[in-house]
Design goal:
Length: 257
């Protein structure tokens, strides 16, 4: 049975933590889905496996190309597509067009966009009215890199209050879930207790309703990770070893045999 946005809200009510990871192609998405991940995000963080230094350059067409590939690999998980930088901030019309393409062209069930009150509240309300489930994202919003850097957000009492009220406004706008990125754990807990919709944390402590990480960090595919990531396996080493073994066997004419 495919996971629905309603079911994620039920998971919160049942106290069952939500498992989320990112994916960028068919093979990876299929592995995550069969492993039982509840939500697969086609994150604009795939920028890093495409060799971009930030999430700013990736285009909607690039995101949709990868999202289609991910969608073909998924039977159970809810698939959410990140809307990339400047494909939704310009106007509600632009957001509707971009989110509509994400849903119509990829088969994903929902979109995610960054930002809070007041900029994204009306946008989210309009997308939801049009039948598009929206995941919100506050705290560290990497598309605002040149304004806020990559530092933890919500550290002062005033900043914490602002993020708290943004989260409430985004729930009222109709978001089905909200990502809390790189904020203090006690602030994430307060938001999680206040909201009916599930909070999905990344660098936001253990008390969110679920957790998400960037899968290239979990798998150790790249050389560096954010401070809040955990490297569960080092695929860089595993792949290097396999490639070296293959190279030796080719050069010694031991493969094929
Ligand atoms: N591989 C990867 N994983 C991610 O989680 C991720 C990305 N890429 N790219 C998009 C954003 C950027 N992220 C990041 C990246 C670095 C830091 C980091 O190093 N933060 C430091 C401060 C760095 C600074 O001030 O410049 C910290 O201590 O908080 C945090 C979040 C999270 N997201
Ligand atoms: C880290 C998650 C929340 C994200 O936005 C991404 O992977 O792009
Ligand atoms: Mg993102």
């Amino acid at each position: 049975m495919p996971v629905t946005t309603q079911q994620l809200i039920q998971f919160k009510q049942q106290g069952r933590p939500i498992v989320a990871l990112t994916a960028w192609d068919y093979a990876l998405a299929q592995i995550l889905d069969v492993a039982g991940v509840d939500l697969i995000l086609v994150g604009d963080s795939m920028s890093v496996v495409l060799g971009y230094e930030t999430t700013l350059p990736i285009t909607l067409d690039e995101m949709l190309y990868h999202a289609k590939s991910v969608r073909r690999g998924v039977k159970r998980a809810l698939v959410v597509v990140d809307l990339p930088f400047l494909t939704y901030q310009e106007s509600i019309q632009q957001a509707m067009h971009s989110a509509g393409r994400a849903i119509k062209e990829t088969g994903a069930q929902a979109v995610k966009l960054e930002g809070g009150y007041p900029a994204m509240v009306e946008t989210i309300a309009r997308l939801v009215q049009a039948g598009i489930p929206v995941m919100a994202h506050v705290g560290l919003t990497p598309q605002s890199l040149h304004q806020i850097g990559l530092r933890q957000q919500g550290k002062t009492e005033e900043a914490a209050q602002r993020i708290f009220h943004e989260a409430i406004a985004l729930e009222q706008a109709g978001a089905f879930s909200i990502v809390l990125e790189h904020i203090p754990a006690d602030l994430a807990l307060q938001i999680t207790q206040k909201l009916r919709i599930p909070t999905i944390g990344i660098g936001a402590g253990v008390n969110c309703d679920g957790q998400v990480l960037v899968t290239s960090d979990v798998l150790g595919l790249l050389e560096k990770q954010p401070p809040f990531a955990k490297v569960y396996t080092n695929l860089r080493e595993t792949i290097t070893k396999a490639v070296q073994d293959f190279s030796v066997e080719v050069r010694e004419r031991k493969f094929p045999q």
